[in-house]
Amino acid sequence: MSRRPVNLSRRHGDSGGGGAAGLFSFNSKSRSAPYFPILLILLGSLLILAYLYRDSGGRSGNIGVFNHIEGDFSCTAEVQRAMSVLKKAYGGRMHKVLHVGPGTCSVVSNLRKEEETEAWGVEPYDMEDVDSSCRALVRKGIVRVADIKFPLPYRPKSFSLVIVSDALDYLSPRYLNKTLPDLARVSSDGLVIFTGFPGQHTAKAAEVSKFGRAAKLRSSSWWARYFIQTSLEENEAALKKFEQAAAKMHYNPNCQIFHLKAYT
User: How far apart are CA 151 and CA 147, in angstroms?
Assistant: First the structure.
């Protein structure tokens, strides 16, 4: 996973009007001449619709963007579903939140709508086809593009809660050994990890090209052993509150969710 600069530009191709005009250039005495205006109107309408679809209507919000990024599943979308449950479990500890993962602009935007909640984001991969609101978050420094294999540019305990999704699945144990402790370092109250279930995802060539490797979805027992190895403790109090809130709200997660304590 190599670091690449933010590419927020968007390319627009030629409308192809000249080619279309040449396509429908027939003899004026032809029988089909009366249909020229209708055909040209239809062609123009199709071009306009295609342009609008590409620029604004072709994505069903930001969730659609990172569903496309992740392919068969998206735990970043799951963060959005679980947000009300997380608020019940963590309460006041969600006043200063860092989200790490693809599609972070959407998560951060929604969090910042909440009263007394500050939110920042880290996008671990190159950002493509982002909207104007996401570009504004990047421009203001609220969302950063950073390779999480290296230490994050934040002081210890900068955030009350750190939420991670669709990011650790693409790291080998070699880099997890550095990244996970660093995420715990910048948290004061806890770390919440959203990761896919084994067998939930099929790697695609485009995914490997973008993320450097296919997602490695590990079992809960693998993660439990790994947390012990890295001296990370399960946050049993937060887990109990989360499960109670999930039961009351009939929330059934589509991803594995781990609640960890921050380093003391």
Answer: 8
pLDDT tens digits for 161-181?
999 999 998 898 889 999 999
- The per-residue b/e assignment along 85-100, b for 16 or more CB within 10 angstroms, e otherwise, is bbbebbeebbbbbbbb
Of the chain, the percentage scoring pLDDT greater than 90 comes to 52
Encoding tokens for residue 146?
């950073």
User: CB–CB of 244/217 below 8 Å?
Assistant: no
Q: What is the pLDDT of residue 228?
A: 92
Token couple for 105: 């602009």
Instruction: Quote the Cα angle for 23-29-31, to 5°.
Output: 75
Sequence-ordered strand ranges (E) for 125-173: 143-145, 159-165
Residue 249 · residue 82 · CB < 8 Å: no
Q: CB–CB of 209/4 below 8 Å?
A: no
CA-nearest of 80, 87, 125, 133 to 107 is 80
Q: What is the pLDDT of residues 31-50, one digit of tens each?
A: 545 666 677 777 766 666 55
* DSSP H helical ranges for 53-131: 61-70, 75-90, 104-111
